[in-house]
Amino acid sequence: xxTCESDSSNxxxxxxxxxxxxxxxxxxxxDALLKDGYKYMFVSNSDNLGASLDLSILTHFxxxxxxxxxxxxxxxxxxxxxxxxxxxxxxxQLILRESAMCADEDxxxxxxxxxxxxxxxxxxxxxxxxxxxxxxxxxxxxxLPMIKNKKTVDPxxxxxxxxxxxxxxxxxxxxxxxxxxxxxxxxxxxAPVKKCNDLLLLRSDAYIMENNKPVLNPECGxxxxxxxxxxxxxxxxxxxxxxxxxxxxxxxxxxKLKISGLVKMSDKTIFVGDVSIVNKSDVxxxxxxxxxxGELDLTDE
Length: 301
Fold this sequence. Notes:
The protein has seven helices and 16 strands. The chain is an alpha/beta fold.
């Protein structure tokens, strides 16, 4: 086990959302739901602002009589690092492959969106009676594949001790249900906020509110801008807040935004087409007002 002298709470890690099934069984909640006559369960990530209980999807799931169904979307460059759906060649069973389960030499193939076309939204529909059967057959648990995530013991300090965080994913349960299925859903069902890339995109005019849900602005032509903020400079929300004190720039006409280094953005900036901004200095530099397109080096500004 890792130790962290600066903050002992960092020595504990979350088990991953695959712990959902153990929590349902261990708490007695699964048995209680079945006793009360509940048959279907819909679960999603709390950070997915597009997830909702869609009765048309529930109807399809019920009529299909599948024990488990995963909502998938077509992968884009923004999703290439996320888990994708695959078919196991030995038995034709649907499985989920996460990036942490992928060998380093297979990373390029894993991120090939033309080869692996669909990713898991983690909007899942589950037959509770079938879940109970699998748990009972396996002695009180569901046999999910273990994921080894490479982290640092202090998530705010990249120089702190490197650790392996062991966790499971709830979507990986698809391989445990014989006859499991998947459906392709529109992008409106998937609006996550996991990184500053996602947060900046959702705060911009590339998304609009429709029926209290964020949906892609029709002016984007059906494809969200590809976001590539400096992962070291904008790892935490505070850094993004500092970079956007002047407001959120327009992204509705942008196809790709790449930012390397510290910048200051404002709502007076309109990114157009492919944009690449570089600042090699240690001081945050102002992005110009008006339309900004192509490559821009702010280092000496």
